[in-house]
Each structure stands twice: as C-alpha cells, then as structure tokens.
Amino acid sequence: MGFAGLLNVTVDSLSLAYQNLSVQLIVYLIVFTIVLVVIIILNRPVNIIRDFSRTDVNLNRLNQPGCFPNGWIGVCESQYLKDNEIKRFDFCGHRIILLRSSSSSSSSGSSLGKPYALDAFCPHLGADFSVGGKIVKKCETDCIRCPFHGWVFRANDGLCLEVPYAKDKKPPNGVKVKVWKCLEMNGFIYVWHHSEGEDPTWTPNIIDHITTKKWKYFGRTEHLVNCLLQEIPENGPDFAHLNEVHAPSFMWGGKIKENNNILIDSISHRWESTWQKGASNDSHKAILSLKSMTFLFGFKLAELEFDRLEQIGPAIVNLFFCFNLFGIRLEGCYVQSVISLAINKQKIIHHLYMEPNWMSSIVAQFLLRAEAIMLERDIQIWSNKIYLNNPKLVKEEKQIAMFRRWYSQFFSSSKEPQYKFEDLW
Ligand code: FES
Ligand SMILES: [Fe+2]
C-alpha cells in the first residue's frame, strides 16, 4: 500500500470514528436532556386542581345543619398570600380579607410578613378593601387604607385612625372594622370562626418538621365539592366505605367502578381502620389508625400502615406516614384543610410534605396522584348524596355515631343539630 492508500485508510478510519463519536454524542445529549427534564418535573411541586361542584344542587338537604361549625378554618394557603398583598375570601358565610404586612416588619422571624384577617367591607360606605385597598403604616403599625374615600383602619384591632378629609383627619369615635383571629402554621393561614363570636378554646398543632423545613413541600391538590363540611371528616370513622369505594386499585382511576371486571378485581386494596375521640384535654381531636393492604389475585403484595391520622377540630386533618421502600425511609405527612365556601360547597386542599431524598421526589408524585384518585371516588359519593340526620346504622358502625357526637361539639349549642341514635353500645 502506497502512501496515498495509507492516507485514505487513515482518513476513512477517522471519519468512521468521527461518525461513531457524533452518534454517541447525540445519544448522550438525548439521554442527558431526558434526565434533565425528569429532574425538573420531579422537583416542581405538583398542583392538581379539580372542580366537582355542581350547578344543579337542589337535593333534599332540608335536614342538614343550617349553620357552619366553629373552629379554625384554613382559609388561605401561606404561599398564596405574598407580602403587601390583600386578598378576599368567602368562608363560613362571611366575606373577609387577608392582608400580609411586609416581612421586614415581621417580629416572628418568619420569611413572610404577619397576616391579618378583617371583614371585607369598609364600615364607612361598604367598599370592598380587596378592590384597590392599600397596606400603609401609621405610627409603625400595619393599617389598611380603603380605596373608596381613603379612611385608614388599624389591621390588628380594626380601629379607624384617619379620615383624610375630616377636621384634623379625626375619625368618628370608635369606628371599627371587624377583625378575625388568625394564625399561620403548617403552610396555612387559619381563621377562627364561631357563630356566636366566642374566642378560641384550642389551637391547631404546629408540625415541627414543616416549620423547621426538615420536610419539603412536594405539592398540593385542590378539589371543589358539594356536600356539608361534616360529611368529609365523617369518612374517617366510616370503615365500611373503605372496602367498597377504595377497594379497586388506584390504578383504575378516580371514577367509581360500576361493573365487576376480572382485571379490575385482580388487584385490589383492603383496608382496616379505627376511630376514637381525643382525651378530655384534647377533646377537639380525634385519632384514627389506617392500614392498607394491596392484593394481586388474592396474594398480599404490600402493606402500608399510616403512623397517625389526626382530625383536629371540624376542618383539619393531619396524616403522618413513615415507611421503607427498597430500604429507603420515606417519612412525611399530608395536611388536609377544608374551607366551607357555602353550607354545601367545600374546597378540600391537601399539601404533601416529605423528608427530601432522591426517592421522595418520585414517590411524592405518586402519592399526590394516588390520594387525588381515592379522594375523587369519595367526592362522587359526597356530591350526590343527601345528609341524613338519623341514619340507620348497624352495631358495627357505632364509630359513625360516636363521630357525630364528637363533631356536634363544633356547633353552637343554640343551633346544635340533634342527633338521635338507637343505643348502639
Ligand atoms: S367606603 Fe371606605 S372610605 Fe368610604
Ligand atoms: Fe374515603
């Protein structure tokens, strides 16, 4: 082979190597892009929003309690009220505003400013503060300035401090806008509702791992549903529904299955649960245990036992879990909050927090979707059922009767629904 031939072979080999390298480079680039996209998706908090509320709600709900329960209601998620922001909310038959001071004035050390809750309407001529109102400072205190005529009200007690066009800017004596007690914890701003205006007798628990950020926020689900608030936590003691509504695997989706199907029946969940009211010094709480077993053709595949499930007052549930998956510990909790938009229209919010590790990002995506699927099955029942004051229960369901007795503490005595049950125990 002459020099020219040798040169040709070398050029051919180089060009082949170059082509191989290009193909490899393209493959690497594709794989890298896919991995990058997956990482980005896994690191973005999930946000599932579904509206199951109906416009044709005219069911016979005449027996329903005609009032809202008393307690702390998670009116707003902390992440949706920024510093210097004013937002309007409907809850428990009232229209209120939440406003947040700038974080520089927060004494709590929180990265966000202090929240305040006030009636939405100005006592002067009824303007809605959330439509153009401003957060201002007077004598170092947070105030709201009405967009209509500029009256200024102190945020912490609602007192009118200034009427811009009155002599010496002096307001009429004692003019106030109603202030609602509120507190912020666990990713929510809770507002105290009491039909008779009584003060809080309890507060929700702070979840330390959320406050200290040991657990990371992985996302939320939001569902709108037509039912009474009470019917949602009543699911807790209703063990019998678990093995009907939630027996088919979550893989089959959120629609309640109407027909038997061998494929659907082949993989299923079985549930065990208990419910008991809290101790006398924690009477606003109830504690549940919940165990789920997954079966494939009758053989147990997996078992998941939730650590602790707490119902706190009429509208808050915290569900703690800790389990091992392939030797990796997964710990966290769901925080559930129900906001009564009207007597029979509720907004259900779930937040998921978990201890962060490489697997929790993947598992969180699954947990939030599985939870939404199971919840949507309940919602189909809730949105179409009626509320029965005196349901016909069997002895084995005495937990439902116990729950109703427990829950009746959240209604003011003058309006307390009268539950009558046979003596079941
Ligand atoms: S209505 Fe608010 S200042 Fe007039
Ligand atoms: Fe359920």
From TrEMBL:
Keywords: 2Fe-2S, Iron, Iron-sulfur, Membrane, Metal-binding, Oxidoreductase, Transmembrane, Transmembrane helix
Gene Ontology cellular-component annotations: cytoplasm; membrane
Keyword Hydrolase: no
EC number from the UniProt entry: 1.14.19.21
Segments forming domain Rieske: 72-191
UniProt catalytic activity: cholesterol + NADH + O2 + H(+) = 7-dehydrocholesterol + NAD(+) + 2 H2O; cholesterol + NADPH + O2 + H(+) = 7-dehydrocholesterol + NADP(+) + 2 H2O
GO molecular-function terms, A-Z: 2 iron, 2 sulfur cluster binding; cholesterol 7-desaturase [NAD(P)H] activity; metal ion binding
Compartments where located: Membrane
Enzyme class: oxidoreductase
A Pfam family assignment: Rieske
Stored SUPFAM superfamilies: ISP domain
Source domain of life: Eukaryota
Alphabetized InterPro entries for the sequence: Cholesterol_7-desaturase, KshA-like_C, Rieske_2Fe-2S, Rieske_2Fe-2S_sf
Transmembrane regions listed in the UniProt entry: 21-42
Main subcellular localisation: membrane
Biological process according to GO: cholesterol metabolic process
Cofactor(s) for this UniProt protein: Fe cation
Pathway(s): Hormone biosynthesis; Steroid hormone biosynthesis; dafachronic acid biosynthesis
Family membership noted in the UniProt record: Belongs to the cholesterol 7-desaturase family.
Name by which UniProt lists this protein: cholesterol 7-desaturase
Gene name of this polypeptide: 107371675
